[in-house]
Amino acid sequence: METLLQPVKAVFMRGGTSKGLVLHARDLPDCQARRDALFLALMGSPDPHGRQLNGMGGGISSLSKICVVGPSSRPDADVDYTFAQVMINEARVDYSGNCGNMSSAIGPFAVDEGLVSVSNGDALVRIHNVNTRKVIHARFPVLDGRAQVAGDLAIPGVAGRGAPVQLNFLDPGGATTGALLPAGKAARFLEIPGLGRLEVSMVDAANACVFVRASDIGLTGVESPAVLNGCPEILTLLEEIRIRASVAMGIAADFEQARAKRVVPFVGFVSPPRAFMTLAGETVPADDVDLTVRMLSSGQPHMAVQLTVSLCLAAAAAIEGSVVHAVTRSPERRPVHSGAVRIGMPSGVLSAGADVVRHKPAGWHVERGYFYRTARRLFAGQAYPQPMMDQS
User: Fold this and answer.
1) CB count, 10 Å around CB of 361?
2) Hey, is 243 helix, strand or coil?
3) Are 315 and 203 contacting, i.e. CB atoms less than 8 angstroms apart?
C-alpha cells in the first residue's frame, strides 16, 4: 500500500555548479526519520535506474541536494543552514559535510524569503552551517529588498553571467574532524590493497579531503570524467584510498563504516599545471592554472570541483610538505596581485583562496577561505514527494 506525503513549500535554486531544493525548517517534520523519508521522496530516491526521473533530482550528486534554512541557533549568525546530500541509488541521506556551491544560494534565499532584513547595496548574511558548525559570510548585491541576479561574473560550468556572491568561510579548519591535519602531518603513507604504500595528504578545511598525486596511481591528472567512468579499476582504487583515509582521519571507526559514509572524506588526485580540454571542448593552457585536480563525489567523477574542496585545496597548497603543495605553482610565479590558487578542473579554471599561517608550536591554521559564485532562484512553489510504500 502506498503512502502519500503532503507537498511542501520549496524553492528550487542553482548555487554555483549545483542545483537543489531549499526548504524552510518550519515546514518540515521534527522527526529525523520522517524528514529523511520526505527528502528521499522529493528527490526520487532510491532509483535503481540512477536518473531520479520520479523526483526533483537529476541523477548526479551535484543535482541531488536539499538545503534547510531557519532561524540561527547562535548569536554570530543570522540563519542556520543544514545541507543534505540525497543518495541516488540508496535510501539514505548524508549530513556529514557541507556543499560550498549550494552555500552561495543561502544568503539570497534568506533575503528573498524575509528571514533577514538588509539595506540596498552590498549585503552581508552570516550563515551558520549546522553540518560543520562553521560560520560563512555571504556578501552580494541587494536592491529593493531582493538579492540581485544580473551581473558580470561568469563561473566555469555555468552558461551566462550573474551577480557575484562572495563566500568567506571563517576558521574553516577541522570542519569535519576537528583538526586541520587530522592525521597529524601534512602527508603520510597509507597501505592500499593491490597498490602498497601510497603517500597522501589528509586535510580538513571546510570539508575533509584526501589528495594523492596523479602520477602515483598511473594517471596524468587531466583525465575527463568520461575517461574515469570508463576505468572502473581507477574508481575502485580511489574508493579504497578514501575508505582508508576515513579511518585514518577518525571519520569512521572501521572500513565497513567508512564504506557507508559516502560523502566525506572527498577523494581526488592532483598534478602540476597542465594544458587540458574542458567539457565544453575549450583548451586551457598550462600557464592559466596553478594546480590541476580531478575529484570524486559519492563515488562519481565530478564535472567540476566541489567548492568546499577548492577551499581545502587552496589551504593544502599553502601547507608545506603536503602533496598538493608539492605540485602547485609557487606564489611568486602566479599572476601579480593574485592571492588565490587557479585550479584546473574538468569544467575550466576555478580560483579559490585561503589565508594560512603557521604558529609555533601549534602548527598550521587557516584564518579564512574564500571564493566567488553566482546563484539564481529557478522556481518557487510546492514540491510533491513521490508516493512511498507503506512498510507497516
Assistant:
1) 4
2) helix
3) yes
